[in-house]
Amino acid sequence: MDSTVTTGTAEENVWGGGNSPLGASYGKMMMWFFIVSDALTFSGFLAAYGFSRFKFIEIWPIADEVFTHVPFFHGNYPMIYVAFMTFILIMSSVTMVLAVDAGHKMKKNAVIWYMFLTIIGGAIFVGSQAWEWGTFIKGDYGAVETKGGRILQFVNAETGERAAIRDFAKTLPSERVEHENKNGVWFFDEGYMPSYSFNEVMEGFKANPSILIRTEAIVQEGENEGHKTLLNREESLKKIKDGVLVVEGANLIRNEYGSRLFADFFFFITGFHGFHVFSGVVINVIIFFNVILGTYERRGHYEMVEKVGLYWHFVDLVWVFVFTFFYLV
Amino acid sequence: MAHAHKLEIFRGLLKFKSNTQKIWGVLIFLSIITAVEVVLGIVKPRALTHSYFIGMKLLNWIFIILTLVKAYYIAWDFMHLRDEKSSLRRAIVWTPIFLVAYLLFILLFEADYVYNVYKDGFIQWNF
C-alpha cells in the first residue's frame, strides 16, 4: 500500500485490474462512500434547521435557557452537561484511534482494551442523550399557547426568574366527565392532559400581580438586546387573553420552549444522531467479540477495526456540528 | 497497512515522536477548543454579540470557525486522512464541501426572504 505501482503482472495495463490508484482497499473505500453520503444527509438536516431558524430568526428559542440541567444537581447550569457529553464522545474517539493503532502493531490485548473503553464511552453518551430527551420532554416551567400558536412564558417580577405555572396557578373546582371505553362507539383515549387547565392558570395569573409574561420575540435593540421580550403588568393582562391552552414540556406538536419547529428539529436531528451512536456501539460490540475470538489475528490484519473506527469518528464529527448549531450558535 | 504515519500537526510546527503521542496531542487541542467554545457560550461577551460580519454575529462566526477547525483535526488525525493519498482525500473532502455550501447558500437566502415576507407582507402571525 505504499505506492501506486500495479500489483499485477507486467503485461497488465492500468485498466486491467489489480492496482489500487487511491491506495485504499475495497472495504475502506465503501466505508468512505457511506460516510460521505451520510454526511450529506446530516448536512441536509442541519441546513433545514438553518432554514427554519432564519425564517423565525426573531422568535427562535435561546438554547442556553432550554438546556440548563445536569443530572444529580439542582440549579441552572447552561451548557455544562452537553459539554461533558461532547468530551465523552471525543474521548471515546481517542480510544478508538488507539485501538486502530494497536491493531496496526498486531497487539491483540491492547485492541481488546481500547475497544472496550470505546464501547463504554459510546454507552455513556447514548445514556446521556436519553436523559437529555427525558428532561426536555418533561419540561420545567410550563407555558401558555395562544390562538396563533405562539408561546407565552411567565416571569416573577420580584426575583426576575422564570415562574413555573404550578407555583401560581389556582386550583378551581370543576367537573370533567371522563370519556370511557364502555361509552364510546369508536373509542379514543384522552391522551395528553396538562396538570392545570388554562382557566386555572389565567385565574392564578390575574390574582398574582408579580407575575409577568415573556413573549417569544427577541429584543432587537437597546439594553436588553438578545433577550426575550418582557411585558409589563398591563400588557401582560391584555396578552393572557390570547391564550387558549397550557403546554408542559415538549412533544412533536407543541413545546413550552417556543417555536414548534425547535422541538421537532431537536427530536429529529439528535434522535438521528443518537441512532447512529447506538448502531455504532452495536457494531463496535460485534468487532470487539471478533477481536477476542482472534478472527483478525488469523486474518493477519486488523482492517475491520480501522473501518468501524472510521464510522465511529464520523459519528463524533457529526456531533461536533450538532453541538455548534443546536447549543452554541 | 504498513504505511508510515505523518507525525506533524500545525504545518510542522509541532512534531510528535509516535502516533500514540500525536493522538493524545490532538485530544488536548480538541479539548481546549471545546472548552473555549463552552466558556464563550456561557459568558457571551458583549463585544462579540453586538458586532456583525456579513449579517451574522461575530460570536457565531467564531463558533463556526472553531467547529471547522475541530472537524479538520478529527478527519485528518482520527480518521487518518492525513496519511491517505491526496486524490482520495480530495474526493472525500471537496465533494461534500461543494454540495453543502451550495445547499446552505440557497436555503438560507430563501429563509431570509420568507422572514421578510412574514415581517413586511401583511401576514399576521403573532396573535
UniProtKB/TrEMBL annotation, chain A:
Keywords on record: Cell membrane, Membrane, Transmembrane, Transmembrane helix
Listed under GO biological process in this entry are: aerobic electron transport chain
Membrane topology label:
Multi-pass membrane protein
Q: Please give an example of a GO cellular component term from this record.
A: plasma membrane
- GO molecular function ontology, one term from the record: cytochrome-c oxidase activity
Span-the-membrane segments of this chain are 30-51, 79-99, 111-131, 265-296, 308-328
Q: Which InterPro entries match?
A: Cyt_c/ubiquinol_Oxase_su3, Cyt_c_oxidase-like_su3, Cyt_c_oxidase_su3-like_sf, Cyt_c_oxidase_su3_a-hlx
Signal peptide range equals none
Q: What is this protein called?
A: Cytochrome oxidase subunit III
Organism encoding this protein: Zobellia amurskyensis
High-level lineage: Bacteria, Pseudomonadati, Bacteroidota, Flavobacteriia, Flavobacteriales
UniProtKB/TrEMBL annotation, chain B:
Q: Where is the signal peptide?
A: none
List the Pfam families: COX4_pro
Major localization class: membrane
Q: Which InterPro entries match?
A: Cyt_c_oxidase_su4_prok
| Membrane topology category | Multi-pass membrane protein
Ordered alphabetically, the record's keywords are: Cell membrane, Membrane, Transmembrane, Transmembrane helix
Q: Where are the transmembrane segments?
A: 23-43, 58-79, 91-109
Q: Where in the cell is it found?
A: Cell membrane
Entry's Gene Ontology cellular component terms:
plasma membrane
- The yes or no answer to whether the keyword Kinase is present is no
Query: What domain of life?
Result: Bacteria
Q: What is this protein called?
A: Cytochrome c oxidase subunit IV
Q: Which organism is it from?
A: Zobellia amurskyensis
Q: What is the lineage of its organism?
A: Bacteria, Pseudomonadati, Bacteroidota, Flavobacteriia, Flavobacteriales
